[in-house]
Amino acid sequence: MAAGALSGLVAVLETYRGRDRVVRALCYGCQLAGGALAGPQAPPSGLPGSLLAVSAQLSACRTALRLFDDFAMLSYSCGYGLGPKDEDSLVRGLSVLCNLASQLYYPCEHVAWAADAGIIPVGSRKWWTLSTALWAVSLLLGILRSLRILFQLRRKLRQHKRTSSPQSQQEMKAQVKAEVLSVLTDAADLANAIHWLPPGFLWAGRFPPWLVGLLGTISSLIGIYQASRRGNSEAV
């Protein structure tokens, strides 16, 4: 059993997406633990300070690795295009806008990263703000899309409750669960995205480190769970 768990972990870490999910969970987990242990102490020192330092380094690592995500996102956006013609028009519109916001997010973040690294002579703050705003827009659009899909699925479940097969109902219920988890994930990330915007907008800048870590850990663990469920279903 231990050998199987180890081989499964190795298989996850050998893929880019799998490794990113693990690093993301560790990043937010360290921030949650460091922030909770530090309490009102500022600046934190000792173990809390070390945990927050590890979190910052893992976050920087993920930022550097995202330098290569543009092409994967572009391939996905081009593959989706304007969406399947048999798909709901509102879902298609939200998906296209979500893909556009995600596509624009990457170059903005790259410019901010390059400015911080001294590669290009521009201020990084406005580019970090723009990339965070685009991420927030993408998350909001993703939530609206999932809510629309949930509305359609619940309506189908009511309409075909007596006529559809048990297997069909089970599949729709599984889709409902997946969309609910997506809403929770995007909502947790959206709360953090707003926190990282310039102060004065909603709750921007008001979250303590432990709350940022908690929200990020929740979204990371849900993402790992969803990825494992997809992997299991593909293996069947």
Describe it.
- This protein has 236 residues and is mainly alpha-helical.
- The protein is 79% helix and 0% strand.
- Helix 5 packs antiparallel against helix 6.
- It is globular, with a radius of gyration of 20 Å.
- The mean pLDDT is 90.
Secondary-structure topology with pairs:
Layout (H helix, E strand, L loop, with lengths): L1 H12 L2 H23 L7 H20 L4 H11 L8 H28 L8 H35 L6 H30 L13 H27 L1
Helix pairs in contact: 2-3, 2-8, 4-5, 5-6, 6-7, 7-8
Number of strands: 0
What global shape is seen? globular
What is the structural class? mainly alpha
Cα distance, first to last residue?
20 Å
What Rg do the Cα atoms give? Answer: 20 Å
Helix percentage range? over 70%
Mean pLDDT: 90
Describe the largest sheet: none
Q: Ranges with pLDDT <50 over ≥5 residues?
A: none
- H and E string: HHHHHHHH
The helix tally amounts to 8
Strand content: under 5%
In a few lines, what is going on in this structure?
By secondary structure, this protein is mainly α. The protein has helices at 2-13, 16-38, 46-65, 70-80, 89-116, 125-159, 166-195, 209-235. 79% of the residues lie in helices and 0% in strands.
Which short descriptors sum up this protein?
single chain; 236 residues; mainly alpha; 8 helices; 0% strand
